[in-house]
Amino acid sequence: MKIKYTLIKKDNNTKARLGKLETNHGTYDTPMFMPVGTNATVKMLSPEELKDVNAGIILANTYHLWLRPGEDLVAKAGGLHKFMNWNGPILTDSGGFQVFSLANPKDISDDGVEFKSHIDGQKMYLTPEKSIEIQNKLGADIIMSFDECAYYPCTYDYMQESVERTLKWAKRGKEVHNNPNQSLFGIVQGGEFKDLRAKSAIETVKMDFDGYAIGGTSVGEDKKTMYEMIDNCIDYLPTDKVRYLMGVGDPLDILNGVKRGVDIFDCVQPTRIARHGNAFTRYGKINLKNAKYKEDFTKISEECDCYACKNYTKAYIRHLLMVKETFGQRLLSIHNIRFLIKMTEEIRQSIENDSFDEYMQDFIKKYTNK
RNA sequence: GUGUGAUUGGUGAAGUGGUUAACACGCCGGAUUGUGGCUCCGGUAUGCAAGGGUUCGAUCCCCUUAUCGCACC
Q1: How do residues A90-108 score in pLDDT, each as one tens digit?
Q2: pLDDT band (50, 70, 90) for residue A127
């Protein structure tokens, strides 16, 4: 069956929404944060550890799994869930973001996109049909339309062309999508141009997808612009479908997204910065490699209930990072993911209590004051 | 004891009689938003063992001392 979103409660003071998402692999509350597991693994974490941090949906990537090990192999293994031993829900990104990160503008045509494989430089060709076909074989609960995440900044004319292209691609993908157990999401583009965002949203909604994503943010624009991008399209999205802000997961951005009516987020930030020695705390991000933590025998965060905070000190984790033991990176990855997920738990609670606005102001005050 | 070769930052080292002593590692910071995992960007020796001399000018040439290595007695 398809996913089913139910709006449980709307916040009084903001557009924040409390919702419920039913999937073939369990029911989860929104707003939620989805950890990213590009290569069918959330880097450094086992599925058991993901359960421990109370993860819901996790992300995998079409482009990466297409190259290795190949969608046919995953299908042969019995699908992505079985292959990676994750029985929670999975969402696969379409490979659209790799248009942004791997291809040149000249390689993008209305038909599809030519990539150079990041592994061996081989030419690869991805089309909306191909992306959906791969995703059908991978078997995630939610699959994404193949879109163009345009460069920022780009001209109005280019963005207009890009939005048209993404709409056509969405339509083509929807036509070939043939797995009734997978929900297909459309993606709103349009950059910072208000009318293009509106048009993209309206036309995408007309195609009637199972959920809607806002793409093309966090590509180099400032925060104000990013929030405007959301504001400029979110009211065109139906209230009875889930809304996903792609690639966003900075704590402050999650709050601002929720405030504007976003339900789900994903981001590589918690795991990437963890591998580089950084941890989220209520009082801002800290760098565990800093000399000041050398003899700091306290936990990363007093408020945190994660495995790392329950058992280890900053001094020990710093030591692991300094000697390049990967256990340090693992502990920080666990902590950072738990930090964001716990944050969404509190956000939900605050919406339920009609105190989201207060929660957000309080969080920002602590997080930015230091 | 005699002869001989060395001595450059936290480490391994390059280098030249003349503006800011290369590079690497380490260390100290910073970045990181649909992941091309262990990356990227900065900073880091007011000084070349110590003292004296030659020179317009010495880390580089000379002398003495110290330390270390090698060879011989």
Answers
A1: 999 999 998 888 888 778 9
A2: very high
Q: Is A54 exposed, middle or buried (0-12, 13-18, 19+ CB in 10 A)?
A: middle
pLDDT at A292 over 70: yes
Q: Is the pLDDT of residue A343 over 90?
A: yes
DSSP designation for A180? T
Nucleotide at minimal C1' distance from the A100 CA: B34
State mean pLDDT over A183-196: 97
Residues of chain A with CATH 3.20.20.105: 4-267
Closest CA to A146 of A182, A100, A179, A105: A100
Among residues A182, A181, A180, A196, which one has the least CA distance to residue A148?
A196
Protein CA at A225 to nucleotide C1' at B31, angstroms: 21
Tell me which residue of A58, A154, A57, A144 sits closest to A100, measured CA to CA: A154
Residues of A serving a catalytic function are 93, 266
Question: From CA A20, how far away is CA A355, in angstroms rounded?
Answer: 19
CA atoms A139, A178, A99, A251: torsion sign: negative
- The gap between A148 CA and B65 C1' (Å) is 75
Q: Which residue has the closest alpha carbon to B35 C1'?
A: A268
pLDDT at residue A119, rounded to an integer: 85
Task: Decide the pairing of beta strands A278-281 and A58-61.
Answer: unpaired
Distance A305 CA to B4 C1' (A): 68
The residue that minimises its CA distance to C1' of B31 is A273
Mean pLDDT across chain A: 95
In this structure, which CATH number among 3.20.20.105, 3.90.740.10, 3.40.30.10, 3.40.50.880 belongs to the domain A4-267?
A: 3.20.20.105
**In this structure, is the CB of residue A44 within 7 Å of any atom belonging to strand B?**
yes
